[in-house]
């Protein structure tokens, strides 16, 4: 009986939290003086992380942007992002991740499954990454990532994410540091309330950056001598 009431209590708290966030989200929309401009969501000066969101014309879900300085060289940060099988160790709500197809040293497809907020079915996505390797002339490495929902059949019990499009730019700063900037848009597919998607949009970028900062200090990335699986510089 106590166990049953514990479960009910968790459900009630989840519902209250969801309702509270939805109400706050609606209020924030009214307070936005320039809803089509980037709004600062979080400024973590101690960790050098800033996140933003923006309401795009014709879209019910905000875009996101993140800017971070990570204490690791470009090679280590690239290694972490190329290690697709280990994304669940650090990427927000990822419970599965794997490389699907290596087209070339600068092009690939990968697959991810994400845990959804309480009461919603989990999501999966197939992503196409076209890599622009670092050159001294450009000064950065860039991932151009787009969702390709029809690349493989839909999976039972999972809702296919329709859009998870983003650019991720890595700029070496010297002194063993790298600037990481990402900007993009997510459409979770299915029947997902806007407040739930916007909640993820606001919190996921910051959580992902924390994961990068933590994981990139591992010997597997910081001091690895293994060949790079993809081309990160010319």
Automatic annotation (TrEMBL):
One of its GO terms (molecular function) is lipid binding. InterPro entries: START-like_dom_sf, START_lipid-bd_dom. Residues 23-198 form the START domain. Residues 1-22 form the signal peptide. Keywords: Signal. Coiled coil: none annotated. This is START domain-containing protein. It comes from Agitococcus lubricus. The lineage of its organism: Bacteria, Pseudomonadati, Pseudomonadota, Gammaproteobacteria, Moraxellales.
